[in-house]
Design a protein that fits this description.
Elements: E1 16-19, E2 22-27, E3 32-37, E4 45-51, E5 58-62, E6 65-70, E7 73-78, E8 86-92, E9 102-104, E10 109-114, E11 117-122, E12 133-138, E13 145-149, E14 152-157, E15 161-167, E16 173-175
């Protein structure tokens, strides 16, 4: 096994994302993430690591890319070759809070919350508009969680409950009224 700094530099529990025979672990000490091969459960091995400019607050792995949310932006790292991760893209914003949630829909759009603002980006690394903002929606309270399923997003705000949004293919978000 390997040692990791789990001190709360980001004041959150360690963030882990699994993809195939690897886990991607956010490590505040780098700051960045480590890739650990878990194919043999008796012999976990660190394959590589990647450093970012600040400690990531969220991680997602999708189609050979690791999406990391850091203070002030999203960093995308290509992990097609696990032994040589490469920064593929970055998107910055002037947000007011640390983003704590990242989600994807079936169209490859990337959703993240910055305080009470839900932003939808083009999350397809093969697209000419990769990481361009598709839509922004301001919610009545700080967003704590985002769940995407069947073209709808459930946005959870602890002081207001949850809102269900219908997301159209052009990334238009519409609040679905309570029934």
């Amino acid at each position: 096994w390997f040692a990791m700094d789990n001190s709360p530099a980001t004041s959150v529990a360690p963030l882990i994302e699994r993809f195939a025979d690897s886990v991607y672990v956010v490590d505040a000490a780098l700051p960045g993430f480590r890739v650990v091969n878990i194919a043999d459960p008796t012999d976990f091995r660190e394959v590589t690591r990647f450093s970012t400019t600040g400690p990531p607050t969220e991680i997602a792995v999708r189609e050979g890319h690791v999406y990391l949310v850091v203070q002030g932006g999203v960093v995308v790292v290509s992990v097609g070759d696990l032994h040589a991760p490469v920064a593929a893209a970055a998107r910055t914003w002037r947000g007011s809070e640390v983003v704590r949630k990242l989600a994807f829909d079936e169209y490859g759009r990337c959703y993240f919350a910055d305080g009470a603002t839900l932003t939808i980006l083009d999350g397809d690394p093969d697209s000419e508009t990769f990481l361009n903002v598709r839509a922004t929606m301001h919610m009545p309270a700080r967003i704590d969680d985002i769940v995407i399923q069947n073209g709808q997003a459930c946005v959870v705000a602890p002081t207001r409950g949850s809102e269900i949004l219908r997301i159209e293919n052009d990334a238009t978000a519409t609040v679905i009224p309570d029934v």
